[in-house]
Design goal:
331 residues, alpha/beta, Spore Coat Polysaccharide Biosynthesis Protein SpsA, Chain A, seven-stranded mixed β-sheet, four-stranded mixed β-sheet, 15% strand, globular
């Protein structure tokens, strides 16, 4: 193979109905394939995925397939792809999504020009016939920046609130440094601590304008549509975020943002799990209390008092408050 400029990692399970659209969009990415590696992780599919892969294999000069006999999840699948990647730049794509024409060449040009650790870009959500453009929350475009500027301000949506792994491109030096892989064995919320690690530990990034990714939502069988113990991985994800902040040279700078995010998502998840079996709700309550205890108590209290009363009431018994401050507030 000539010098490999790009490795594209695509994990998918039972994606056969959507793969032709995805592969068709890759074939509209211009003259990149002689210097690009396509890695497909067939994660325990039981549908026609192997047949679809056979149909498209000859259309890509460097097409590698990794087959898992049983599904191991998106995080593990992406990590398998990273282990096989040889490109200088790396892109993630889900099997049910697709790319606008010329998206990858646009990102590659920006990556070569800016020479940053990672790029981020906008995307479009697709739900049935409805499409909605989602802008990456960074006004400064096409300029190399310190990734830490993408974390704050506390009370606005920022780049750590935009964790989508497929919305960008990553230099392999992040992989060599050990900060590009995803937390193992997480079935959901795998990108939450991943994006915080990038913004805390990488040296440079940029948000660029690009043709974009089309991201399908609301598909039958998607984990976002299923409520079971796998959805509790958000608890472990925030525990990892808090561990990153504890280890950072500037923890006080980041605690308010991370704590506010935790309280908002905890509130959302408590509502989601409201009608679930008591065993799941007990796991949620126990895990949330343990993770909340990682936050310095004065900072947790400071953020709690900023929440609207309905949220305070909803989350108060999930915070594991040992000194009674929060319980007193919501009496």
């Amino acid at each position: 193979m000539t010098k490999t400029d790009l490795s594209i990692i695509i994990p998918a399970k039972n994606g056969a109905p959507y793969l032709p659209t995805m592969f068709g969009s890759l074939l509209q990415q211009g003259d990149i394939w002689q210097r690009s590696q396509l890695i497909f992780v067939n994660d325990g599919s039981t549908d026609d995925t192997p047949r679809v892969l056979d149909e498209y294999a000859d259309q890509f000069p460097h097409f590698d397939v990794i087959t898992n006999s049983e599904a191991s999840g998106l995080a593990n699948g992406r990590n398998q792809g990273l282990d096989a990647a040889i490109g200088e730049h790396i892109v993630f794509l889900d099997g049910d999504d697709w790319l606008a024409p010329n998206h990858l060449p646009t990102l590659l040009e920006a990556a070569h020009h800016l020479d940053v650790d990672f790029l981020r870009c906008d995307h479009t959500t697709v739900e049935g016939t409805k499409r909605s453009f989602k802008r990456a929350p960074m006004a400064v475009r096409n300029r190399a920046l310190d990734p830490r500027v993408g974390i704050l301000p506390v009370y606005e949506s920022t780049m750590v609130d935009y964790p989508y792994a497929w919305a960008g491109m990553f230099h392999r030096r992040l992989l060599d440094r050990g900060i590009l892989k995803f937390p193992a064995n997480m079935m959901t919320a795998e990108d939450r601590s991943w994006i915080w690690r990038l913004h805390l530990q990488a040296d440079s990034f940029a948000v660029v304008d690009a043709p974009g990714i089309l991201y399908r939502r609301g598909l039958p069988g998607s984990l976002t549509q299923i409520l079971d113990a796998r959805q509790l991985d958000f608890i472990r994800a925030f525990s990892q975020v808090f561990s990153l902040i504890h280890a950072d040279p500037e923890p006080d700078r980041w605690w308010p943002k991370a704590t506010r995010n935790w309280l908002a998502i905890l509130d959302h998840q408590i509502k989601r799990f409201g009608a679930s079996p008591i065993s799941l709700r007990s796991q949620l309550r126990r895990g949330a209390g343990i993770v909340s205890s990682q936050i310095p108590s004065d900072l947790l209290h400071a953020e709690f008092v900023q929440q609207k009363p309905s949220r305070q009431l909803n989350i108060s018994s999930y915070l594991g408050d040992t000194n009674g401050f929060i319980k007193e507030m919501v009496k």
